[in-house]
């Protein structure tokens, strides 16, 4: 029987801690039967701060009666040495990877503090911020001024997941994603919105089950025709028919996260990213 | 002298590849003198697909005359075995971490495919999507209907970075971040916007250098009073004075990424995240 007792996991970093967390989440997700209490400790860059970490790790060990797990991305070896005084199971990113990489590349690492330090000046970062602004300006068909600049235009019925997906594509990948709703008028005319016809090769559809769509829409407008299950079913059927006829690829969003949807879209349209 | 020749880095995953990329970026950032060509290969979950990876790795090695680096998060050991036929420098996440974790936890990992699989049903994921919708509904002071529900309300002059930061806080951390502009009328009255007074403890300010603000505003409205350097300087001075007087903590956004700004805000306000 897997244990259901709680074990603390500390994400310790001298920077934002985002790398340690991302790494840690992907590892812990492999052990769904265990129960973890996650504690984020970013900006641990002095002896005082790391001693505070050690104290908290000891307290967690004492109260849970099991040694905590520590996922760390610290680079300062003096701080690491203090941290190691705690009795914990250590997963140290730099320890395991940086040293071998230095040997392979034949050069020393800068041991810079944290992943994002200095990134705000990079071209990649600026492209991501520009893409976020683009996604906001071209959300829900509110502007078609610069659709020609888009890398992809997401289409689908209202509340099928277009907005968060377009924001994620922008934020994570610097992809300029517009989104455009398919509405009952389009289905009556049985045609793509006129603004989109010339950009057909940029279109990518999202679809969703009628049950889930109805649930989401009810949260927004309870007891409405808009949210009624039969109406949702009709809209989705019509949207899928339209997308098939127009040769627009589409993906089911119901049980997928925006990360999965975005990665799949990116993979399929093979947008070539430059720089960074 | 560090080499400036190009070396390919492959991010290979049976899922979205986002974990492999995040991990890889943080490692490569330690070697700014090296030039890397990054290739993303997600959804590598069949023998055919991994053989295609091997072929591309060999081609890169031949054309660059150096063995590529492979950052992988594959869990299927048969697929890993095929990948290992390529001559590359392997950084394998699961190899280095999953096996030791299994020993520590006394249980087998599920070897699920990818980090995000099944996440769409989790409470954490739903909270993140809800937070994104909240950030969009409460962007730029456009609604104050549910400000009481916010975890934080970002304030600052127009174009100081509030919108992308609030979206990042939502997307990465599930934090409900509203944002509200400080405008010339507020400075003339020398008072906080009336809507915000009752939420003073939730306020967090962003500031920026006048030079950078003027640059950003010129992109939006060239040759305007709005973008003029002296006007930007006056607005920023007045905003900082107002924030200091009201006891609102604030952070300089000029040379920081939204990841850094968000992590710092989160750290300082110590929002307690639950679940996941």
UniProtKB/TrEMBL annotation, chains A, B:
The keyword Kinase applies. ADP binds at residues 156-163. It catalyses: [pyruvate, water dikinase]-phosphate + phosphate + H(+) = [pyruvate, water dikinase] + diphosphate; [pyruvate, water dikinase] + ADP = [pyruvate, water dikinase]-phosphate + AMP + H(+). InterPro entries: Kinase-pyrophosphorylase (IPR005177), PSRP (IPR026530). The keyword DNA-binding does not apply. Its EC number is 2.7.11.33, 2.7.4.28. Keywords: Kinase, Nucleotide-binding, Pyruvate, Serine/threonine-protein kinase, Transferase. One of its GO terms (molecular function) is transferase activity. It comes from the Bacteria. It is an enzyme of class 2 (transferase). Pfam families: Kinase-PPPase (PF03618). NCBIfam families: PRK05339.1. Belongs to the pyruvate, phosphate/water dikinase regulatory protein family. PSRP subfamily. Bifunctional serine/threonine kinase and phosphorylase involved in the regulation of the phosphoenolpyruvate synthase (PEPS) by catalyzing its phosphorylation/dephosphorylation. This is Putative phosphoenolpyruvate synthase regulatory protein. It comes from Uliginosibacterium paludis.
């Amino acid at each position: 029987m897997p244990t259901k007792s709680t074990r603390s996991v500390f994400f310790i970093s001298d920077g934002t801690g985002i790398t340690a967390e991302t790494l840690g989440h992907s590892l812990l997700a492999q052990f769904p039967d265990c129960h973890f209490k996650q504690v984020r400790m970013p900006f641990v860059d002095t002896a005082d701060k790391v001693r505070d970490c050690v104290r908290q790790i000891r307290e967690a060990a004492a109260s849970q009666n099991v040694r905590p797990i520590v996922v760390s991305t610290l680079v300062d070896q003096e701080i690491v040495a203090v941290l190691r005084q705690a009795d914990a199971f250590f997963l140290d990113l730099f320890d395991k990877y940086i040293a071998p990489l230095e040997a392979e590349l034949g050069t020393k690492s800068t041991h810079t503090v944290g992943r994002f330090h200095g990134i705000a000046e990079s071209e990649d970062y600026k492209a991501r911020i520009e893409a976020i602004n683009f996604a906001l300006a071209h959300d829900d068909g509110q502007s078609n001024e610069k659709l020609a600049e888009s890398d992809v235009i997401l289409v689908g019925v209202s509340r099928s997941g277009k907005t968060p997906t377009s924001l994620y594509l922008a934020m994570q990948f610097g992809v300029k994603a517009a989104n455009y709703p398919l509405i009952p008028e389009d289905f009556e005319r049985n045609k793509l919105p006129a603004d989109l016809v010339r950009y057909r090769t940029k279109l990518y559809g999202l679809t969703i089950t009628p049950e889930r769509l109805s649930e989401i829409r009810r949260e927004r407008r309870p007891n409405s025709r808009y949210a009624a299950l039969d109406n949702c079913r009709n809209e989705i059927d019509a949207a899928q028919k339209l997308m098939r006829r127009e040769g627009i690829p589409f993906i089911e969003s119901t049980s997928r996260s925006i990360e999965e949807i975005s990665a799949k879209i990116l993979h399929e349209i093979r947008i070539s990213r430059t720089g960074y």
